[in-house]
Backbone:
């Protein structure tokens, strides 16, 4: 069929659909909303490159209604800059068909925000609605009962995605269902929300940026059923809404955030940006246990501080991490809902600051004052509590479980079919790179055949790099990255060869004289040394680009789009600076520390402040370095070895703590040593006492600090498999005849306390000591020369005392005092 004929048919269909749209989405039927969204869409397009701006204006004029205006107005302009108008038009057409089939069942703003909205998170825009309907959702969309439709949608998602920990860059729904069938929690969220919206179920992304009671974070979906927002987690256990693996932990979560566009009057809005609204969804989970938090910020003279930023912080991965930021009103007040877990609030304004612990675990209504001053933040030593909530787990019907297993089989069959196609091709490598390309094998095959045989080192890089690159790259990008790799030292850190820096989309390769290249020619600079070349690169950055958050496109930009801009946001500028350094053979990487990047020089990574044009650490020989010796003791005053992850150096910037890459050198006997690369840092020392209790200490540091003594209250110890060195020192007869053995000494306080515990247990035991007991020895005491020798090598064991207990699984050991025997 001739191209012009296809275009005419396409336009006729579009005109027909537009004419059939619900009156509430037209200028005459809803003039106020039309004016608001149409004006916003036009303003939005001002920042796009001219050609794209004209193309999007064309479809906005052709579909002159509220729906198209919304689809353009409420996507980040960075996403539109990376997309084509046909993508938006395809989704528009499917939404209109949905309206024609079902009518408008919700208020227009609600429909737009939670059914019409195209993107879910940071993924690239794609024409996923038609593809999903063609892949099986068309039948699901015809199910009238909303609960049944929800269950069918979740079950369909099981066919299309298997959970696996992957990188932070999001796949779009089309990539998931056609190329990988794999994703992490946020991609499971993206897939379900996109699928639910496609079949007419209101849905939105939700999650917690950081758990408060355990390390890591999580993202999931909310779906609107029977007039209320419900949550859903794993798609293979989604039969009952509001029931998933974390249901018993919702009270431990301080804040649960959802994403919207046009909020309702009942939404608790924490933040409204140009393209989205952050909604506090915590009360949908905590219900009657929700905490009401009211905070007032004052200066040291008692004056209210208006528009004072407040950062809500919880402990996670070794330091306080931000959940969200809000601001006070004109009277200095800020109010929000929270779960029943403890948290910190950091306030900062014009050089004044404060850090306040909020005991949400103790009260239903909390009203407190935060006084800001210019003084340095003081030390903190807190025990944080996170109570659990009761829940009753409901078992899904057997028929549902059988259907879920059937769908998992369908998914595996698809993966197997991809694998078979790849096996039957002429491409094979010892590292299985071709196999890992999955549904994107055609692109990889095109690249491979054009450049075979590939260098083994490059295949190794691909096998160890993010598999999403293999699932998403086109043949030109494979070629561009390969050509760049060939021109660099293969022994360089792998970050040098990576085509993305943070979570931005994969770039489009540049084609010059038929050859694909990763970076534009104007990125390349010269220099006699890496440092000199680095200076040239960053000078070039300042000439080509201006940092202006107001004029820059909003969101993450892929490399080729960012390179064509004049104005960049702070984060975009840092990301592009890293790309330009990599283009010149200088390994560089992203850090969350504001204004900083990581640069690899002199065989080590260093922080570099691109605003101050200076290294932030020891790479600058003129900067002083401190050395801090840390001694950690338990509550009995005995040395305690802890996991290095419990310790972190942080920098406090604009209300948040940023963790530095620091190496805490273990010296033994509870001692650690770390370099202080700069003044004014903070040491975080934290650990999970249990899943309901966390210990945290924060200590301000100075370069002249040389020692710091820490007491680890209630540090968790567990029964572990007995160390072979200990078992070898005990003769076999004793091991066979006894169930309990204490290793310590007759004159050690801790040994005697453990001995008292053994006596109270009313069980038979033997007490092995490291020295002979003068006079009357404790009951069942024996001197053990072999234990004496080992105790001299490991003073920590000798000071704490070691209990050995025989179990069905073999001998277990516990260092120090225990609460109960295994």
Residues:
């Amino acid at each position: 069929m001739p191209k012009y004929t296809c275009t005419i048919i396409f336009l006729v269909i579009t005109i027909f659909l537009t004419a059939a749209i619900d009156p509430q989405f037209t200028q005459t039927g809803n003039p106020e909303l039309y004016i608001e969204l149409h004006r916003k869409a036009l303003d939005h397009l001002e920042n796009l490159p001219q050609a794209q701006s004209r193309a999007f204006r064309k479809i906005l004029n052709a579909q002159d209604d509220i729906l198209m205006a919304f689809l353009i107005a409420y996507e980040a302009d960075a996403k539109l800059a990376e997309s084509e108008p046909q993508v938006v038009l395809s989704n528009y057409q499917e939404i209109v068909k949905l309206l024609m089939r079902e009518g408008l069942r919700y208020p227009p703003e609600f429909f737009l925000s939670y059914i019409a909205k195209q993107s879910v998170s940071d993924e690239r825009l794609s024409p996923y609605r038609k593809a999903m309907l063609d892949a099986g959702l068309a039948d699901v969309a015809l199910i009238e009962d909303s609960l049944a439709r929800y269950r069918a949608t979740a079950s369909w998602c099981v066919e299309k995605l298997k959970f696996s920990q992957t990188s932070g860059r999001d796949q779009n729904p089309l990539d998931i269902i056609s190329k990988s069938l794999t994703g992490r929690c946020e991609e499971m969220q993206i897939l379900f929300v996109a699928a639910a919206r496609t079949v007419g179920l209101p849905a939105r992304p939700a999650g917690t940026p950081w758990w408060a009671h355990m390390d890591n974070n999580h993202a999931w979906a909310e779906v609107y059923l029977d007039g209320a927002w419900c949550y859903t987690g794993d798609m293979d256990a989604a039969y009952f809404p509001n029931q998933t693996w974390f249901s018993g932990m919702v009270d431990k979560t301080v804040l649960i955030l959802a994403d919207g566009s046009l909020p309702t009057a009942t939404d608790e809005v924490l933040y409204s940006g140009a393209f989205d609204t952050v909604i506090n969804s915590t009360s949908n989970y905590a219900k009657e246990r929700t905490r009401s938090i009211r905070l007032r910020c004052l200066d040291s003279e008692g004056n209210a501080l208006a528009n004072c930023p407040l950062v809500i912080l919880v402990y996670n991965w070794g330091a306080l991490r931000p959940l969200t930021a809000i601001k006070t009103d004109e009277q200095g007040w800020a109010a929000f809902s929270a779960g029943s877990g403890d948290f910190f609030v950091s306030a900062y304004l014009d050089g004044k600051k404060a850090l306040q612990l909020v005991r949400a675990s103790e009260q239903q209504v909390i009203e407190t004052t935060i006084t800001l001053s210019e003084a340095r933040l003081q030390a903190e030593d807190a025990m944080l509590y996170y109570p659990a909530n009761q829940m009753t787990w409901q078992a899904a019907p057997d028929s549902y479980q059988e259907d879920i297993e059937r769908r998992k089989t369908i998914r595996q069959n698809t993966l197997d079919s991809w694998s078979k196609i790849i096996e039957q091709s002429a491409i094979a490598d010892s590292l299985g790179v071709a196999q890992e390309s999955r549904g994107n094998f055609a692109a990889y095959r095109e690249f491979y055949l054009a450049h075979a045989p590939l260098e083994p080192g490059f295949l190794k890089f691909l096998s160890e790099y993010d598999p999403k690159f293999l699932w998403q790259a086109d043949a030109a990008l494979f070629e561009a990255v390969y050509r760049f790799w060939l021109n660099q030292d293969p022994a360089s850190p792998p970050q040098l060869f990576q085509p993305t820096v943070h979570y931005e989309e994969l770039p489009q390769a540049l084609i010059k004289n038929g050859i694909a290249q990763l970076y534009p020619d104007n990125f390349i600079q010269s220099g006699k040394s890496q440092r000199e070349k680095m200076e040239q690169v960053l000078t070039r950055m300042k000439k080509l680009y201006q940092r202006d958050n107001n004029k820059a496109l909003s969101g993450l930009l892929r490399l080729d789009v960012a390179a064509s801009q004049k104005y960049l946001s702070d984060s975009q500028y840092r990301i592009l600076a890293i790309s330009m350094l990599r283009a010149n053979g200088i390994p560089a990487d992203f850090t969350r520390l504001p204004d900083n990047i990581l640069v690899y020089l002199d065989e080590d990574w260093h922080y570099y402040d691109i605003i101050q044009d200076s290294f932030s650490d020891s790479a600058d020989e003129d900067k002083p370095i401190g050395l801090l010796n840390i001694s950690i003791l338990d509550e009995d005053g005995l040395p305690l070895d802890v996991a290095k992850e419990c310790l972190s150096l942080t920098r406090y910037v604009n209300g948040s703590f940023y963790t530095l890459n620091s190496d805490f050198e273990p010296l033994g006997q509870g001692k650690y040593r770390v370099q202080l690369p700069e003044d004014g840092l903070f040491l975080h020392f934290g650990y999970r006492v249990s899943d309901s209790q966390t210990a945290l200490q924060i200590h301000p540091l100075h370069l002249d600090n040389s020692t710091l003594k820490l007491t680890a209250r209630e540090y968790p110890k567990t029964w572990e498999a007995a160390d072979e060195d200990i078992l070898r020192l005990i003769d076999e007869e004793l091991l066979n005849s006894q169930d309990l053995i204490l290793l310590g000494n007759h004159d050690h306080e801790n040994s005697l306390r453990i001995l008292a515990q053994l006596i109270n247990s009313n069980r038979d035991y033997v007490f092995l000591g490291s020295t002979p007991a003068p006079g009357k020895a404790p009951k069942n005491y024996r001197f053990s020369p072999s234990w004496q020798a080992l105790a001299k090598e490991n003073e920590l064991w000798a000071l704490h005392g070691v209990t050995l207990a025989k179990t069905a699984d073999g001998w277990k050991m516990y260092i120090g005092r225990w609460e109960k025997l295994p």
Observations:
- The longest strand covers residues 319-327.
